[in-house]
Amino acid sequence: MARLSGKTGEVTQAGGTIAGIKSWTLDQEVEALEGTGFDSSGLKGYSPGLSGWKGSFEGYKDGAPLTIGTEVALVLKESQTATQKFTGQAIITKLGVKTDIAGLVAYSYEFQGTGALTIATA
Question: What pTM was computed for the model?
Fold first, then answer.
């Protein structure tokens, strides 16, 4: 199978592309709850607990920044193929701004997912 290039990735919210974005990350996790008892023969036992997802994206300033504390319908696209995207509601939790005399003004964002995450396929 051929590897997938990220060059056509994209981040959208409320149906519109967030201009200037050059990369994104997504972390999905589940808590491992320890349930070790005397009957476990000295081996730790675990059960899945609560799950969640969070991530970040960054790029160059191209318009007004997103407002922290707002909930957005977020779509993280791996490519322009319809099935290669992650979707869900998320809260923008952090905005970072970097201005450099030798570079472009850059924005970075962190988000926390709320509810279910629809996972990319294919």
Answer: 0.89
